Amino acid sequence: MDVEAAVVEAKGDPFRIRTVPLEEPRPDEVLVRVAATGVCQTDAHSRNQDYPIPMPVILGHEGAGIVEQVGSAVKDLAPGDRVAMTFPSCGRCDACRAGFPANCTHGFELAFGASRQDGTNAYGDGVHGHFFGQSSFARYALATERNTVRLPDDMPLELAGPLGCGMQTGAGAVMNSLEVGAGESLVVLGTGAVGLAAVMAAKVVGATTIVAVDINPSRLALAEELGATHTVDASTEDTGTRLRQIRPDGYHYILEITAQPRMLALAVDHLRPMGTAALIGGAPAGTTAPIDMNRLLNGGRRLRGIAQGDSVPQIFIPQLADLYRAGKFPVDRLVRTYDFADINQAFADAASGEVIKPVLLMN
Q: Are 164 and 36 in contact (CB under 8 A)?
């Protein structure tokens, strides 16, 4: 079949909508008619080759839509199902078998290799697909049963797409990875979509000190509305000084989402003994950070990375949908929708900070 897709031809190029041939699904694959797809910073990083991927390529990895066709080996999905697509995993490595697909041994190559795991490509005319196992900047996406999640019938598809990456990354970091508890303290460095998802999740679990740090006053105001107990405007305040004023003894947890090395060092510096700093923000390949090793050693402080909120998507995405439907995870407050044809404007608005979570509508 031929599908209309937004293709990046070379590093930094604008998206160009063109028709690309697409093969029929293999036995374990699922063809999804995309209704909406989120725009994520990882798409921008990939377009700019911060993560080197083959080009020309179809990006997009927060897709949601309707199952059109399933392969012969697919058991849990059927045509007509409303679904969100999420990150890929192999299902066979030790991490996957232990219930941690976000840490799949082959996860990076499956996400950024722009091919199936066996190296083949279902897309024609020299265009690479399979980005994050979906390439959802297209009217149809080819995914697998492992990274396709059935949704409740009343979950809006334009809000469901971001649950598959940004929302589950921020919320999952709080609820799954760190297991932040009632009465504990959390700092969120960066209040884009991932950071605001973390703020909302921290409120859900009952954290009593939730500090949001950013340089965008409107985002900080929104963070306060969504559950932050304190905000720090890093453009006008010294972040370290302000964090010490709020909680002199340090914090249980600090999430670093800006991908700035100095902010990761700051996160470690402001932990309480036995506290945990976690890196979520994706930096360009080869980026290093100046960590005070004695700060980690003394007091048993911890530093770890988190991918996709350690989510098992078939469990966690429906949980987030339930929280949204209960009014406890208002992802709609973060979203602005765009027509598919306006994809370049959506990226420009995200880059300027004008929009937190652009979502492209295909219809």
A: no
Q: Based on the domain organization, do 352 and 230 belong to the same domain?
A: no
Answer whether residue 318 is part of any domain: no
How many residues are given for the chain?
Answer: 363
Largest CA distance in the chain: 61
Is the CB of residue 294 less than 8 Å from the CB of residue 269? no
Q: Give the torsion sign (CA, 313, 131, 363, 361).
A: positive
% of the chain with per-residue pLDDT over 70: 100
The pLDDT value given to residue 282:
84
Q: Is the pLDDT of residue 363 over 90?
A: no
Rg of the chain over Cα atoms, rounded to whole angstroms, equals: 20
Which pair of structure tokens corresponds to residue 203? 């409120």
Query: What's the CA gap between 21 and 120, in Å, rounded?
Result: 14
**Residue (of 193, 198, 188, 152) closest to 326 by Cα position:** 152
φ, ψ dihedrals at 282, nearest 5°? -90, 115
Contact in structure between 7 and 20 (CB atoms under 8 Å): yes
Do 58 and 20 touch, CB atoms closer than 8 A? yes
Q: Pairing between strand 140-144 and 29-38?
A: antiparallel
How far apart are alpha carbons 348 and 48 in whole angstroms? 13
Which residue, of 307, 322, 346, is where some domain finishes? 307
Q: For the whole model, what pTM was predicted?
A: 0.95
* Residues 93 and 225 grouped into a single domain: no
How far does Cα 198 stand from its chain's mean position?
Answer: 11
Same domain, 233 and 202: yes
For 267, other C-beta atoms within 10 Å of its C-beta total 28
Burial 110-123 (b: 16+ CB within 10 A, else e): bbbbbbbeeeebbb
| pLDDT score recorded for residue 52 | 87
Residues sharing a CB contact under 8 Å with residue 315, sequence separation 6 or more, in sequence order: none
Tens of pLDDT, residue by residue over 158-173, are: 999 999 999 999 999 9
